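Appendix B.2, paired examples.
Example (i):
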Amino acid sequence: MTADAETLVRAKNLKVHFPIHAGIFRRQVGAVKAVDGLNFDIKRGETLGLVGESGCGKSTAGRAMLRLYELTDGQIDFEGVDIAGLSKNDLREMRPRMQMIFQDPQACLNPRMTVGDIIAEPLDEHTKMSSKEKRDKVKSLLESVGMNPDYVNRYPHEFSGGQRQRIGIARALALEPDFIVCDEPIAALDVSIQAQVVNLLQDIQDRMGLTYLFISHDLSMVRHIADRVAVMYLGRIVELAPKEELYSNPKHPYTKALLSAVPVPDPEVEKTREHIVLKGDVPSPANPPSGCRFSTRCPVAQKNCFVDDPEWRKIGDGGYVACHYAE
């Protein structure tokens, strides 16, 4: 999609299928196709937003990008190196350059470790710093995320949700990575704290030149932070475009339905808006429909939509869509 010099990470036909076992002998009888053929790239220094309803495979895709889940098929090129095919030792050498910020700041911090030990753990694993150097580095990281460096000897339960997420961000920054997957980093936080954390992520990106994959179901927040937005449905990306184009002129019927559900803070405008209500439930990823994945709920579906898989094609100014009838 873009020149290799501009691209930091590229996913090619990315698939992650989880086997379904049944019976006394636990034979495989099927597979949950959580991620089923993603193609996208992320430029250096940009934020790609990945949105979609719960269960569509966003978090699985994010973890697969760092190979926290093993791929069923496909490639993940990181600066031209396919990390999907690397051995564990070679992958370990690349780990410092790609990190993750997790969704639940309470679950991802070890309650038995102090804040200082939590943030220093990546330094213990991947560097040969002295104890004093690590201590100074940890205090510097705490300051960089807006926290008191004297908190190094406290435990996670002594902090609020927003402060715990800042600790998680400090840990992700410890090895000075190039690429960070933000897996719904604000979903478990109060609304009043969400903006603070997003602004912090943007400030850090500006200072360090980071590249983000920002996963969220909050379309308003994604519009605030992302440069481009990818919309995911049932394991596949159905539309990808620069954020202004996607929000002002969505092409895919699913994107239109998602955006119509976002309230507008002007009652007069809200009265005149058309809300697209989708019928039925999301099909099971263990048994997805043939043809277009969205065909069973699409308000404009035709006969060929239930049979033919739509081509991933370029449309508009830098946008891509998987739909037979998008114009």
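Example (ii):
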Amino acid sequence: MTSHGTPRDRILTGDTPTGKLHLGHWVGSVKRRVELQDTHDCFFILANMHAFTTRSDQPDEIRADTLEIVRDLLCMGIDPERASIFLQSEVPAIAELTFLFSMLLPFNRVMRNPTLKEEIKVKGLGENYPFGFPLYAVGQTADILAFRPVGVPVGEDQVPHLELTREVARRFNQKYCNVGDKVEDADHVDEGGVFPVPVADVGAVGRLVGIDGANKMSKSLNNAIYISDTAKQVQKKVNKIFTGRQSPTEPGDPDNILMQYCDIFIPDQDRVAELRRKYAAGEDIGDGHIKQELGASINALLEPMRERRLQFEQDSDVIDVLKRGTIEANRVTEETLAMAKEAAGLGFFPRTLDIH
């Protein structure tokens, strides 16, 4: 693994293991992560503790999902020699910072988080969720700030979570580091703050609609094309995309979900422009023909990923990647925690952590 002692800017992002990764994850965040490996000091978290907020009765499934997501990341091009993939549950500084940060946020502010409110609605939780569910919104701020990153690659739906993180960074720096409340976000560290105020780095496609054409691509809605799908499964799912068009000579909506997918996944944009023109004019081009071209393009994207996946079939190989990344994550977060405790008057003596 490349040393993370370089002066490159640091970024942190990651995933909660709720199932396999899909094309929405690729276009919304992971593609950007792959690009950033060459220019930034990259840390990618597997938030396995946060998975317990709604699945505490499924520890075996959470463990299996965690390993599968690491396989997805590796096959998509995350390189453990250039980035650290690590386990949230093995980085104690995150839990300590979560507790400290929870003192900086009023409960009603946490519950106003639109992403949190949407999750409660979509998952049908009503009032039947554990205290850990809203606490995880605070925990996400600790996941991020423990690494003192300048930016966070996220999907569009995660931007509200990041705004909460930015609030915590400002409040901590103002309360414990004497940073003035008029100081610009970019200047907090220069003015003595422990934490940078990180910015969102949203992927080129902030929100990918699923094959149902109505909702964000999601495992729970059964509308996802997974990174691990076979070529046959991909084409079958693409064929299910509904447009409502009745015949090849009927003018089609050039902005419907099928054409949006063509924009995103067919690399030849001249060909996409031609398909869009013919589709809108009803020039005898059927949905089925376009779906075949689209499926072929998605499979061309996924085929190298399928080949890379074969290198990480054994759980032991995946755990080795996680162990190396977690050692590096603890090195950075212990440094951050010491800085935060010193600023807050909690720094009495140093400590060290070992992973064997």
